[in-house]
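Listing S7. Sequence submitted for prediction.
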Amino acid sequence: MILKAKKSLGQNFLIDRNILELITNCTEINNKSILEVGPGTGNLTQEIIKKNPKEIFLIEKDTNLLNLLKDKFKDKAIYYNQDILNFSEEKLSKNKITVFGNLPYNISTEILTKWIININTEFWFDKLILMFQKEVADRIISENDGSNYGRLSIISNWKLKIEKITDIKPNSFKPKPKVDSSLLIFTPKENFIKLDNPKNLEKVTRVFFNQRRKKIKKPLSQLFKNYEKIAKKLNINLDLRPQNLSFDTYYLLTKELENL
């Protein structure tokens, strides 16, 4: 059965043997619980199964692809024909899960944000090994003062350590995307600034980065009546712009908002 990639699902299948090997060499797979998001035609799945995971869960929204995967791997995997955005991953296994995903480009940031925002104190995963469009990856890993720094950088770096492994050229995929991709590894941080409700961090960063060219006095005054006192407490220079503030400053501002 020849299956065509669906543009509506952001499908680009990874076919480069070297890259597939590189991805599966990023972490220990033997005897681990593995989740693969959007396995497509199963090229990466095949490499993962060779390394003897304890169990492997495949989440694939495309029914035709899921049937192909079932034919190919039979009882070597556990299959879910679902949308990852509406899925409860933490219920999959008692073990910590290692996640692999060549994420659909059109919803990749939504998936990542969902995973970060929905973690309470316990992480259900020990690693996320994920592929993004390069420009999205650049935003995820950007530090403050960089032109790519913004809401996505701040939310991604809150609870996770992020490492870039490599960039991947379009000819490693079929069909070829029009852009380069990047492979990132996310590992849970042992210590991070605890917030009562992660939605507050989304709110704070939205207020600041909706006016990213403006000095921060304006967004700060929108969030806090006593903004000068807050600025003094957190040692914030009111002449700076949103991209100049560090990750921790945004987390601490969110804490101040929650304390109101």
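Caption to Listing S7: primary sequence and predicted structure tokens for the chain studied. The chain has two domains: 7-188, 199-259. The chain has a mean pLDDT of 92.
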